[in-house]
Amino acid sequence: MDRDTFIAGLHDLPARCILKDEAELRPYECDGLSAYRQLPWLVLLPETVEQVQSVLRHCHAHKVPVVARGAGTGLSGGALPLDNGVLLSLAKFNRILDIDLPNRLARVQPGVRNLAITEAVAAQGFYYAPDPSSQIACSIGGNVAENSGGVHCLKYGLTVHNIAELKLITIEGELLTLGSPSLDSPGYDLLALLTGSEGLLGIIVEVTVRLLPAPEQAQVVLAAFDSIAAAGQAVANIISQGLLPAGLELMDTLAVRAVEDFVHAGYPVDAAAILLCELDGDPYEVDVQIEQVTRLLQECGANEVRRARDEAERLRFWAGRKAAFPAVGRLSPDYYCMDGT
Q1: HSE of 286 in the Cβ direction (CA atoms, 13 Å)?
Q2: Pairing with 164, which of 37, 228, 256, 280 sits 20 to 30 Å away (CA)?
Q3: Looking at beta carbons, which pairs linking 175-182 to residues 24 or more positions away fall under 8 Å?
Q4: Which residues form the FAD-binding PCMH-type domain (predicted)?
């Protein structure tokens, strides 16, 4: 279909929401997986739910494919556009609609940044648990589309475990509500089906997330090993003892050196591998479990076990892990990223 004719049929969309010139389209040619690029046929940035419905009905009527896009930080190519389709950006859906602390819920639009949810409720002692490395920039809609996790997903789960309700629009323009703010909802678990579907089943226009009370104490231990195998065995031993760390992350020597040069997190650059283990909860329980973990790490051959001295150092340890991707990107424009969970 001719693009100008298609645009002429977008009666409900203001001109400011339509990008068609090459210079305007170029920033949308890829997401975080920049090895694959494709200039989109057309980029649309709707501002209301009604505009999204109108766009999808128009695309459906003229058999024009649609790719949804959040913040574009994904590493799986989920927002890679098509040369014959519409790239539908939800960037203007960026408002926190409601915060319900008694029920530990927040209702947000899909363009809201992951970290912005925690920032909005931190003063009241709450937070949103999933914390992907790109949380300062990634959007909650993209998190749902990719079922994002983060360094604390071992204990607190992925996005699918931390959302209560979704509102989405089908390709025919129908608005659906899946899930419920209550603890359970009747019928099939379609909420789980939608989470991780990369926009293939509908366009998310609203997300109700679950909030958690901030733990009384969080403490992280850094352990250095002479081999990756020893660090891996330490992971197995910690889990087999029935301990459930809030976060448990392993980095090899190449990642450690790249991160230390970039972030200066205080990592030992001569280690073959390091392990970050965080425990949180009641202060007494955390202290007891830290002692258990320290003993297990030493038994597995850790040549250094270091407990974060304060909250600033704890955050710095995790900042290093979360910066692993850009840290390696400083060394080479192209590399393979393999994320094992």
Answers
A1: 16
A2: 280
A3: 175/49, 175/53, 175/205, 176/202, 179/208, 181/100, 181/103, 181/105, 181/208
A4: 36-214
pLDDT in tens, 32-74: 888 899 999 999 999 999 999 999 999 999 999 999 999 999 9
Contact 42, 28 (CB under 8 A): no
In a domain, 139, yes or no: yes
What letter represents residue 22's amino acid?
Answer: E
* Phi and psi torsions of 189, nearest 5°: -85, 70
For 149-204, write each residue's pLDDT tens digit. Answer: 999 999 999 999 999 999 999 999 999 999 999 877 788 889 999 999 999 999 99
Query: pTM score > 0.85 for this model?
Result: yes
Domain count, the chain: 3
**13: containing domain:** 3-89
Integer Cα distance of 25 and 318 in angstroms:
35
Alpha-carbon span 231 to 300, nearest angstrom: 7
